[in-house]
Design goal:
It is globular and about 65 Å long. The longest helix is centred in the middle third of the chain and has 16 residues, at 138-153. It has a 4-stranded antiparallel beta sheet with strand order 1-6-7-5, covered by helices on one side. Strands 2-3-4-8 form a 4-stranded antiparallel beta sheet. A two-stranded antiparallel sheet has the order 9-10. Helix content is 26%, strand content 20%. It is α+β, with helices and mostly antiparallel strands and 307 residues long. It contains 7 helices and 12 strands. It has helices at 4-18, 116-122, 138-153, 160-163, 175-184, 198-213, 246-258; strands spanning 25-28, 42-49, 52-58, 69-75, 81-84, 92-97, 102-106, 112-115, 231-233, 241-243, 284-288, 296-300. The chain starts with a helix and ends in a 7-residue tail after the last strand.
C-alpha cells in the first residue's frame, strides 16, 4: 500500500498538468459515477490528506448546478495509481482529458465525487497528517504533536507497530516507515503504547516525519528512489540519531552513485535475506494487526530492537 510520501509525490506530478486546467472530457468507469459528466469543469487544486488524494474541481460560470465545487476523492488501496498519458486498461476507473494530457486512475479503491464539506467530513476520522505543512511551523507543530500523543494514549494497549499504521491516530505512515523508525529507535514492535513515554512517542513521530520529508519534493528529486539511510549518530538527538544535513546527504548520494550494484536504501524493510543494515543480525518478520483483516508483516531486528 502506498505511503503518505507517495501521495505527496503524486500530487506534485499532477499539479503542473491539472491545476488551473479545464476538463475537456471525463469518463468514470465506476457504476455509481458512470453518468457523471464534469466536462468544462476547472481543476482548482490537487492535495493530499494521509493516503487520500483530493482533486478540487470548480463548475464553469453560470452552470446550472447546486454544488459549484466538488472533490474527486480517491484512495489508492494496495495497487491503485494515477498516471499521466497512459493507455487505458480493464483496471482504469476514470479518465480526465485536458488540452494537452490525459490523467487516468487505475485500480482505485474508493473513487468518489462529492461536495467539499462531505469530503471534509469523510476525512475527519483521520489523525493529524504526518506530512502536514504545519509540522514545519513551530506555532502549529506543538499542537499537532500533542494531538498525536493524545490519540496514541487512547490506544494504550495497542503495540506500537500497529498504532503507527492506525490512520485514526496519525495519518500517512505505512509499513516501510513504521519498520524503519522502530529499528532506528531500537524499539520492539511489540512494546505497547502504555509502555512508552510521551518523549518516545514524540521522537518516533518526529523521526518518521523527517524521514518522509527526505523523500518528497523539494528535498527529493522527482524520480529518486525512496531511502531511509540518510541518518547520522547524534547522542543529543532522540534515540541517538539525526537526519543527515544537505551537505552530508549530497556526499552520501554521490558516493552511492560511484558504487557498483544497488546500495541499500533501508535498514530492515525488505532485508530478510541480507540482514539488519545496522548490526547484520537476521531479520524477523511477524504478522501484526488489531484483527485478522488488519494484519501486516513487520520486519524487525531482534538484536537491535530489544527495548
Amino acid at each position: 500500500m502506498p505511503e503518505g510520501d507517495s501521495l505527496v509525490r503524486l500530487a506534485h506530478r499532477l499539479r503542473p498538468v491539472m491545476q488551473g486546467r479545464t476538463l475537456r472530457h471525463t469518463d468514470f468507469r465506476v457504476p455509481r459515477l458512470a453518468a457523471l459528466n464534469l466536462q468544462d469543469w476547472i481543476v482548482n487544486d490537487v492535495t493530499t490528506t494521509g493516503k487520500y488524494l483530493s482533486m478540487s474541481v470548480q463548475a464553469p460560470d453560470h452552470a446550472p448546478v447546486d454544488r459549484p465545487e466538488l472533490i474527486v476523492l480517491s484512495h489508492l488501496g494496495m495497487d491503485g495509481s494515477w498516471q499521466i498519458d497512459a493507455q487505458p486498461s480493464h483496471q482504469t476507473r476514470c479518465i480526465f482529458t485536458l488540452d494537452d494530457h490525459q490523467v487516468l486512475g487505475f485500480s482505485l479503491a474508493t473513487p468518489e465525487v462529492i461536495p467539499s464539506d462531505i469530503a471534509h467530513d469523510k476525512l475527519a476520522y483521520l489523525g493529524p497528517d504526518i506530512l502536514d505543512l504545519g509540522w514545519n511551523d513551530p506555532n502549529t507543530a506543538d499542537a499537532l504533536r500533542s494531538q498525536v500523543i493524545r490519540n496514541f494514549r487512547q490506544a494504550a494497549d495497542q503495540p506500537i507497530a500497529t498504532a503507527l499504521l492506525d490512520q485514526r491516530l496519525v495519518a500517512g505512515i505505512g509499513n516501510i516507515y513504521r519498520c524503519e523508525v522502530l529499528l532506528l529507535a531500537r524499539i520492539s514492535p511489540y512494546r505497547t503504547i502504555s509502555e512508552l513515554t510521551d518523549e518516545q512517542l514524540a521522537g518516533l513521530i518526529a523521526l518518521c516525519h523527517d524521514l518522509m520529508t527526505l523523500n518528497i519534493p523539494p528535498v527529493a528529486e522527482e524520480q529518486s528512489r525512496r531511502s531511509t539511510v540518510d541518518v547520522r549518530p547524534d547522542p543529543s538527538a532522540p534515540f541517538g540519531v539525526r537526519i543527515a544535513d544537505a551537505t552530508e546527504r549530497a556526499r552520501a548520494h554521490a558516493d552511492r552513485r560511484r558504487r557498483r550494484g544497488n546500495p541499500p536504501v533501508y535498514w530492515v524493510y525488505g532485508r530478510q535475506r541480507a540482514g539488519c543494515l545496522r548490526c547484520g543480525h537476521r531479520i524477523r518478520t511477524d504478522a501484526l494487526g488489531t484483527g485478522p483483516t488488519t494484519e501486516r508483516n513487520v520486519a524487525w531486528c531482534p538484536n537491535c530492537q530489544r527495548g
